[in-house]
Amino acid sequence: MEDIVGLCKRRGFIFASSEIYGGYNGFYDYGPLGVELRNNIKQAWWRDFVHRRDDIEGLDSSIIMHPKIWKASGHVDGFSDPLVDCKESKKRYRADQLFIAPVILDGETCGYVAFVEGADAAAIVKRAKKLRDSLDKKQATLDEDALATQHTEFTDATDAQRAQTLAPAATAVGSLTAPREFKLMFETKVGPLADDSAVAYLRPETAQGIFANYKNIVDTGRVKIPFGIAQTGKAFRNEITPRNFIFHSREFEQMEIEYFIAPDADWKALHRDWIDQCTNWLVSIGLSPEGITEDIHPTEKLAFYSQATTDLMYQFPHGEQELWGIACRSDYDLKQHQEHSGKSMEIFDEATKRKYVPHVIEPSLGVDRTLLAVLTAAYCEDEVPNDKGQVEKRTVMKFSPKIAPVKAAVFPLLKNKPELVSVAEKLYKKLQRRWNVFYDASGAIGRRYRRQDEIGTPYGITIDFDTIEKDGTVTLRDRDTCEQRRVTEAELIEFLEAQIDG
Ligand code: GAP
Question: CA nearest 454: which of 405, 413, 498?
Answer without folding.
Answer: 405
